[in-house]
Amino acid sequence: MAHYGDVSSRADLPSTPPRFASRGAFTRDLEAETTAYFEGSGRARRDSPRMYVKGVVMMAWLAGSWTLLVFGARNGVEATLCALSVGLAIAGIGMSVQHDGNHGAASKHAWVNRLFGCGLDFMGVCSFIWRQKHNICHHTFTNIQGVDHDLDFGSLARLSPEQPRRPWHRWQHLYLWFFYGFLLPKWVFHDDFVVLRSRYIGGHALTPPSRAKLAAFTGWKIFFVMWAIAIPALFHPLWQVLVFHLVACFALGATLGTVFQLAHCTRDAEFPAVTPGRNMGEWSVHQLATTVDFGRSNPILTWFVGGLNFQVEHHLFPKVSHVHYPALSRIVERLAAKHGLQYRSQASFFGAVVAHLAHLRDLGRPVVVASGVTRHATTLAMGGLEIDAGE
Ligand SMILES: [Zn+2]
What we know:
This protein is mostly helical. The protein has helices at about 25-40, 50-70, 75-105, 110-120, 125-140, 170-180, 185-200, 210-235, 240-265, 285-290, 300-305, 310-315, 325-340, 350-365, 375-380, and strands at about 20, 200, 205, 280, 295, 345, 370, 375.
């Protein structure tokens, strides 16, 4: 089942990764109906003209905003607006262009996917590392503590009930939004270097990079610093360049962080506990349990976030162009109901933000201990047994 996850790379996983059951009735039905959808209509899974147009529009948006920021802005207000536009344009490229490319979902031609995937290198993040972190660790082991690297914010946040609670997590639903704004500098100047040095992403051993990959790593980092900081600094004082660079980074990070978190780190999603030897069940059912759609009827949101509001479909069909997700969501929802499975979806973007905020607040509350059993705070909040065991 070539379009189900990037399981071909599972050989790279840690020695005892969680195991999934073989395909069951839900997966078989899903395969049959989606195959009928594509073959019955003559639609191609990839190489959608809409994707190519979108890629050009997004790049033009970035080029126009950057040019105006460096050469057109006449005062601080105009520069701020241009920097915000630069940040949102890069966020759009991150969600709509590089994401499909690095999943192999943009085209049936590998070189086209690589070209789209370079959108990530262009924004300073190493696509070679990201493909392993995102396609393998996150997509295969979604919301499983210890292997889904997207859950790891260090001690700054508690995103899974499996993570230890710290006293400051009580306020994480308030402060974490601010830290999302620094995601890009963290990826570009810290995380990539840590992974390259340690050769590990959490417990996942990084595929050894070739000399060409190491050269590309260095070259793209330099290229990013050149277009984002050095060239603008030829025309403006460095401090001004850094200020508006941070404004752009903040708009970008806040957008990416929020969109990514709404689909998994939410009150609506499950966080399965892993015990040694446990079989996690059917993989596609696991994806349904740990992933949430939002704002499915909002076409502007769908366009800008590259279908990431149809995250259930993205996780089930990561190698299918995101332009097909709205149609596929109707199939997935119907089959989920047929098999008695919960299809998780928030009607609006705002509703998803509230659910994410509630999740952060729930996990930030003091851990509850009753009858010698430690539980998540929300478990017993109704019973009034909440005590401060975590501080
Ligand atoms: Zn993805």
